[in-house]
Amino acid sequence: MTGRAPTSTLAGWSRAPFSAEGLTYECFEKGEGPAVVLLPELPGITPEVLGLAEHLVDEGFTVVMPSLFGTPGKPLSVARTAAVLARVCVSAEFRAFATNARRPVADYLRALARELAARTPGTGVGVIGLCFTGGFALAAAVDDAVLAPVMSQPSAPIGPGAARRADAGVSEDELRRVVERTRKDGLCVMGLRFSEDWMAPQERFDTLSSRLGEAFKVIRLSSAPGNGDGFGRRAHAVLTLEVRETPADHPALRARAEVTAFLHERLDG
């Protein structure tokens, strides 16, 4: 791969705390239009996450980013990622290793989605989870306010074992409610991953496909040896680190465009 992923800064973003369900996080907001909650990937709201956020703002969305961990705006580094990972792994609100887990942060995100739905235009709210937060987007979709959940390379629960690899990243009760919404309300869930990405295992996508059926829309990019797009075998961050804005048919750029179209279709009303 050549070139760099789109990046940006926190310039122009408003900042205010939002409290719900016993949790408080600083939230960054920018834009106008239907609301999209963009969840950070480890180690936090990096310049690459901000690059995705600015793209969504340019597309006509109100984007809100809760700073769930890390230092907002700081660049990605191995040391910073390791330090943040160590903290989230022992955090009760994330329950990083647990299977069939209802995570307290999901209740917070559902409250945030309801608050945004009440004050922004559109039919509802989109939620994009990235990497460690990928499954949180699915958990948020328990609430009727969330109409466009996007799980990009969902990586929790983390850790070894077949049960963790196949776990959907939510509790059985939450997953059952999402399944009900796909049948009653026409809810669709989008999932993205690279083919060789062990951090977002195929078994997790198999579980989601089995439970959600055609309501689970999967974008799969090849990172197999010798793939024609130049992705390395460790390719992971579909919508951030792996995006290139040229050429126009770059597969990760196309994936970002598909996510944007999904949000417009579901939220514009």
What would your notes on this structure say?
- This protein is an alpha/beta fold and 269 residues long.
- The protein has one domain: Rossmann fold.
- It contains eight helices and eight strands; from the N terminus they run E-E-E-H-E-H-H-E-H-E-H-H-E-H-E-H.
- It has an eight-stranded mixed beta sheet, sandwiched between helices.
- Helix 3 crosses helix 4.
- The chain starts with 13 loop residues before the first strand and ends with a helix.
- The relative contact order is 0.15.
- Keywords: Hydrolase.
- InterPro entries: AB_hydrolase_fold, Dienelactn_hydro, Dienelactone_hydrolase-like.
- This is Dienelactone hydrolase.
- GO terms for molecular function: hydrolase activity.
Our estimate of the beta-strand percent is: 15-25%
Number of helices: 8
Identify the CATH class: Alpha Beta
Uncertain segments are none
Name the average pLDDT. Answer: 96
Oligomer: single chain
Any idea what the CATH superfamily is called? Answer: Alpha/Beta hydrolase fold, catalytic domain
Order the strands across the largest sheet as they lie in space: 1-2-4-3-5-6-7-8
